[in-house]
């Protein structure tokens, strides 16, 4: 159970970091990815 939870949290944090990178670099392709992934 905790493994699945940790895996989910890891994926969420990766997505969050990716979307934060979008703000820094303002790359349209990253912006599109973030929009697609919620």
UniProtKB/TrEMBL annotation:
The entry's protein name is Uncharacterized protein
At the top level, the lineage of the source is Bacteria
User: Which species expresses this protein natively?
Assistant: Microscilla marina ATCC 23134
